Each structure stands twice: as C-alpha cells, then as structure tokens.
Amino acid sequence: MQFADIAVNLGDGMFQGKYHGKQRHPGDLPAVLERAREAGVTRQLLTGTSLRESRIVLKYAQQYNFHSTAGCHPTSTTEIDKHAGGEDAYFGELEELISTDRGEGGSKRIISIGEVGLDYDRLKFAPRETQLKHLPRLLLLSKKFGLPLFLHDRHPEAHADLVRILKEVGFGPDWPGGVAHSFTGTIDEMKELVDMGLYIGINGCSLKTQENVDVVKAIPLDRLLLETDAPWCSVTTSHASYKHLPKDLVVVEKVKPEKFVEGKGVKGRNEPAEVVVIAHIVASIRGEPLEKVASAAFDNTMRLFYPGEVKNLKESPLW
Fold it and tell me: Is 93 annotated as a binding residue?
C-alpha cells in the first residue's frame, strides 16, 4: 500500500528538537522521513502557513523531493498589514515566490495555495475583520496560478463566511478544486463543501468527538483525503475514535523528549509515518478494508494535487 500525507508542517521546530523555544534533543528530521518511507508514505505535502513558512517548506520540498503549499494561514493574516511594504508588497512577494517556482526553470514544487481560510476559534491571533479582509485575494491566487486550494475552516460562523466568500470570488468548475483540511465541522457542513467540489482532509483533530466519527462515516470515499498535520494532531486516548485503533499497531516507537534515542520517535510529536494510523482508524470507523480506504485516499490525492501524473486511475469528476 501507498499512503499520502497531505498536511505536514516540516518546518516546525519540533523536528529540530526544539519545544517551546528550548532545545530538548538533537534534530532528527532525516530519521523522521526515513520512518515515513518505511511506512509506505510516498507523498508528502508540506504546509506553508505564512510568507516565511512558505519559503521554508519550499526549500524542504526541493531538498527531500516533496511538494508544498504557499499561502497565509488565517491566524497569520495580521502579518500582511504589518509587512514593511504593506498589503500589496506582501502579496507581491508571495506571488513572486509561486511564479518563480512554477515558471520556466523553477522546481515546480509548489502545487497548492494554502493554508488559507478562516479561523474564529483563535481570534486572539488575528481579528475576524483582518481574516475576512485578506481572504478573497488569497483565494484568487488559486485561479491565477491554476493550483488547488488548501483550506482552513474552523468554527461554524467561519464556515458560513468561507462558503459565502468562495462563492463571491467565483469558485466553481473552472477552478482547480481544493481540500478543507483538518476538517472538524458537521455532516451538513461537510456535504456543503463536497457539493462545491471540495475534498475533505481527515487527521487526529478530525477524530476527537463522536460527532467527528459520524462525519468520517458520511464522507464520500471519492472525496476523502488523509493527513497527520504533523507534528500536531496526534490521536490520543481521550478521542472518541481511539477505540478504532488496533491495539497492536505501532507505526513509530516513541520515548519522552528528555530520553531521546536515535532512531525512535518522540512522545507528543506526530510524524508523517502516522498517516498510517489515521488510515487504520478511518477504515475501522467506516467498516471498510484498510486497503480500500488507503487506495482511494491516495488516488484522490493524486487527482487533486498531481493531475499531470495520474495514470490508469478511474475517472472521478470533481463537479
């Protein structure tokens, strides 16, 4: 089986052994990536959450033969107004990063616009007005560059605003699609996004409550994507989905940060290899074979993010 992890924060300091600004152990990124390869994770999409992070993950994508997103997370949108040259300069630099990579002679590692969207759960980082102000321009980068959207949709009111603005900017069949990543909304919200032609990304944060579990059951298989959001969003014993995790499944053997051992993972830090854990849980929740879920999610990933590489996949129209 092959697995694709569509959300990896490879630029996070945890992979360099840093937690809350403190060095707890040596960086072990090469070992993390090797564990992912051994687990069958052949595709990783690295998440750009700001102009700076988009630059960082692009370099990692080039170095390790992955791909990345470029955008500005809703909780980071205050940096657009604080940019030395203002909003136009910020967008100018972001567009230059994308166009240089996508243009002639570029590495063509940036394959999605994101992370962009709305988050009303963490307004202390960016007021609602700031998020709403910049969202249309961020969304329109998808159509400008012909790249699918990597969306953040957190909070019922944020969902309503996101859907409204997507429609206002003209999102439709002539756009390259997208995914609502780390989805935590309701069944009705999920169906609304699917009806718009979007995919739904599931990780540990999508599996906390019984309502989350019910949503996972209802996602059409041809709209399902899997992710870790590493190093975040691990599945824990408090999650309603935990009972669906096979008791003998150990994808990454882990120790505490202060007892770090070369070749082992770290407790409390999610890894891209653990998308296999998400696949097992989702398959159990849905009552479907692991191979069926893993294959469908991988094929969906290829259709959305790697359409030029799709070969011998059953046609699955977006609209």
Answer: no
